[in-house]
Amino acid sequence: MNEWFPSADARPDAEAQLFLLPHAGGSPLGYLSWSAGLPRGLELRAVQLPGRPGQSGEAPRSALGPLVEELCDAVEAELDGRPYLFFGHSLGALLAYRLTVALAERGAAPPTLLAVSGWAPELPDAIGLSLVHRMPDAELLATVDRLGLVPAATPRERALLEAAVPSLRADFSLVAGYEDDGARTPCPIAAYTGATDPLMPPGAMHAWSGRTASFLGVREFPGGHFYLFEHAMAIQLDLDRHIRRQSAGPVPADWSSPLPLEGSCSQH
Question: What single-letter DSSP state applies at residue 178?
């Protein structure tokens, strides 16, 4: 079994590979609903970060640079010449961004699209997110509950969440230790956000426009930090549309204006 992509959805006839990077404390299981409705043109690769509960002998990574290098190796081993794209939510957006930059520095073929959600460069730390990794276990769990930083949990899921505190702590350490260098990506960027996400001040996602020569705009959906699971199909269709337009050739001047999709909200 591939330790980085344990639930790979093999679609050799798909036109492109979609790599999904998880939020803090997340795992490939969070994207199970994506597999069910994914357009046939996309092959899903959901990343499993090291040190998740149930992984024996693996420690969660708390340093961003070495983790990104490991991810570069893992992704390059999966590439087969087809176009590929990244979608990352929250911590996953940071990882997808730095992964894109690192692959370009290696001279590897860049993704056709970087899609980011729930995190942006230059994001102000108005809610003290940089302190979460230093909190005692009970305070850490209470904080992620209060801010909606993990999906709502049933009692059984709560027990699993408590077991995941070491990986949660390491994941928040990755975010806290990040020092932004303003690096630009060699590919277009599409941004997505929830209208009531407590982490995202109004307009925060537009900071991505300075990280690429081709910014495709921000799509806003109803919901909080985990809006993406309720609106998975609309996001998937949008990603599929973007990858098809990239493959079709030169981009028209108004490409950043999204086509209307059922269940989505207006662009900002």
Answer: -
The pLDDT tens digits of the residues spanning 176-201 come to 889 999 999 999 999 999 999 988 99
8-state DSSP, 267: B
Rounded CA-CA distance 83/258 in Å is 21
User: Could you tell me if 22 and 46 are in contact, meaning their C-beta atoms sit under 8 angstroms apart?
Assistant: yes
Quick check: helix, strand or coil at residue 212?
Answer: coil
Asked whether the beta carbons of 141 and 162 are under 8 A apart, the reply is yes
DSSP per-residue string spanning 64-109:
HHHHHHHHHHHHHHH--SS-EEEEEETHHHHHHHHHHHHHHHHTPP
21 residue type, one letter: L
- For residue 221, which of 229, 209, 211 has the smallest C-alpha distance? 229
pLDDT higher for 245 or 252? 245
Least confident of 135-139, 142-146, 166-170: 142-146
Residue with tokens 């911590």: 91
255 forms beta bridges with none
**Per-residue pLDDT tens over the stretch 204-223:** 999 999 999 999 999 999 99
